[in-house]
Design brief:
Layout: H1 2-19, E1 31-39, E2 44-47, E3 52-54, E4 57-62, E5 67-72, E6 79-86, E7 94-96, E8 100-103
Parallel strand pairs: 1-8
Antiparallel strand pairs: 1-4, 2-3, 2-5, 5-6, 6-7
């Protein structure tokens, strides 16, 4: 009987341990507040961990790994800076450099090309017969000879009929 009780208590103990979340006992990752400044102000600072802000600004960033910050602003070339954790014995880990200051260079304006127009290839229009000139402008000429009658082809010779021809009178 004691064995059954001991096995039951052991089973409940194991079940309780497996459902307990021990993450609460782990220390929280340390963070450092980093200042971002840009010339001209108003640039978007985007950190590699997904956080963003508009300069001038500050973000609380984890100090457990290096990070990359990309600055971008319309009309300017983007700039990229790295943040490295600085570990000192007996002190809290900090990110360096802090503050991060960048000067964005104006983007080169692209050469504006005028759009080239392709000349439309025109098909030659079908020529219409010229309209007759009015009688007033026509030169006075002698009356023209009448046009010859149209030529009619001569009839083909007929083949003799298979029956006898009718008598001539």
């Amino acid at each position: 009987m004691y064995r059954v009780i001991a096995i039951t208590i052991g089973a409940f103990s194991l079940a309780a341990c497996s459902s307990t979340n021990l993450d609460a006992l782990k220390p929280a990752p340390s963070v450092d507040s980093v200042q971002f400044e840009s010339q001209p102000p108003g640039a978007e600072a985007k950190v590699s961990n997904g956080q963003t802000c508009t300069t001038p600004c500050a973000l609380a960033l984890p100090t457990d790994a290096p990070l990359t910050v990309t600055f971008s602003l319309n009309g300017y070339n983007p700039d990229q800076e790295s943040l490295e954790p600085l570990i000192e014995t007996g002190r809290q880990t900090k990110l360096q450099p802090n503050p991060i200051r960048v000067e964005l260079a104006a983007a080169a304006k692209p050469a504006v090309k005028k759009p080239t127009r392709k000349r439309a290839v025109r098909k030659p229009a079908a020529r219409k017969p010229a309209a007759p000139k009015p009688a007033a402008e026509a030169p006075v000429a002698a009356p023209a000879a009448p046009a010859p009658p149209p030529m009619i082809a001569a009839p083909e010779p007929q083949q003799p009929a298979p029956w006898p021809a009718p008598p001539k009178q």
